[in-house]
Amino acid sequence: MYRFFSSAYKFGGIAGALSIIAFLTLSFFYPDPTNLNLVFGYVITPVAIFLAIKFFKEYSNTGYLSFAEGMSVGFVAYMLEAIISLVGIWLILLIHPDLFDQVKLSKLSVLANSKESIVAQVGENSFDMTLESIKNMIPWDIALNDALWKIIPGLFFTIIISIILRKNPN
After folding, report:
1. Could you give the percent of the chain with pLDDT greater than 70?
2. What CA–CA distance (Å, rounded) separates 14 from 55?
3. What is the DSSP letter of 153?
4. pLDDT by residue (tens digit) across 100-127?
5. Per residue in 68-79, pLDDT tens?
6. Cα distance between residue 19 and residue 146, in whole Å
7. Domain extents for the chain?
């Protein structure tokens, strides 16, 4: 089993650690590091998945890769990245409640500045529900959102990369 997933563990773990480091680094420069950390996730996730599948194919599977193997390795890589990122960001926000308050205030400010256009597009009820959900937000919500936005694109990238790298024995 380790042979099958060793590259997924390595690259998923590295990507998760880099996501935490990116969140910490961005928090020094921006009051709300969550949006830029999502962009970073869109870059690092496909790279980690590609490397995990490529290394599995070349070094553990003698140059062959079925679609199912690629999907399995990619799944482990992006899920591990998401879980590590989730736990890391959640712990950072618990340890530094002032950072969490900063993020929350930034999101409330963006919502208030965009009220007219949001109400015009989705209505007053949706705006009020969004405002209420941001007011009731806890650190877990931010960490979970980050993890979900690694899982959803991760699945998409895994499908594409598995198809591209697929090579079955003749």
Report:
1. 98
2. 14
3. H
4. 999 999 999 999 998 888 888 888 898 8
5. 999 999 999 999
6. 9
7. 2-96+140-165
Planar angle of CA 114, 19, 164, nearest 5 degrees: 100
Residue with tokens 């999907």: 71
Please give the model's pTM, rounded to 2 decimal places.
0.90
Q: How far apart are CA 99 and CA 103, in angstroms?
A: 6
Look at residue 169 and give its three-state secondary structure. coil
CB atoms within 10 A of CB 70: 27
Mean pLDDT over residues 45-60, rounded?
A: 95
